[in-house]
Amino acid sequence: MLPILTGAIPFGAVMGTVCFEANLSLSQSMGMDFIVYAGAAQLAAIDLMTKNAASLIVILTGLIINLRFLLYSAALSPIVQRSNFLIKFFCAHTLTDQAYAVMSANENKLKSATDATQFYLGASVCMFITWHASVLAGYIFGNFAPATLSLDFAVPLSFVALVIPTIKNKNYLYVAVFSSVISLLLYTLPFKSGLMITALSSIGLATFLTRNKAQHD
Prior knowledge:
With 217 residues, this protein is mostly helical. It has one domain. The N and C termini lie far apart (38 Å). The protein contains 11 helices and no strands.
């Protein structure tokens, strides 16, 4: 998680600063942070609230931005299906891009569902503590990350480092290239819906390639 946290910390600081500048109280800011726990959705929600948008619009915008978590949770479901309700609830609540990426990159190294669950909990707790601490620090001290460090690039670069080792054959490469191109073409779509369309399209391509390979075998 350490490479990813270098990008999450300044992002959390920005989130806290935005809450302060929007005249939210500390309790309101941290309450939203703990309940929603989704940086992009939180930023969009605060922006809309400062523009006096209707509550329904704010909620729907957050839901649309977070649609990708449906795919993440479906992928993680087999791992936690035998866990108790509290574990499932905590895993669902702490599901983030970062924790999912680390889990996906290391899943093949884990011998059992129990090991996988413990690994995921470790990653998600690490992200959970770091994010909330960063938001709190950003609210109190402001955005303390110098812009000259360009730490906003740390998150996508760390994801690239996690994805590359998983590209094991040409089918993986085809899907990776396809998703990259489609995501760029659809980047300007509203509510970040291009991300969801890209994910679904890439899943469709992967399914097609897998079935085509199985038929030839």
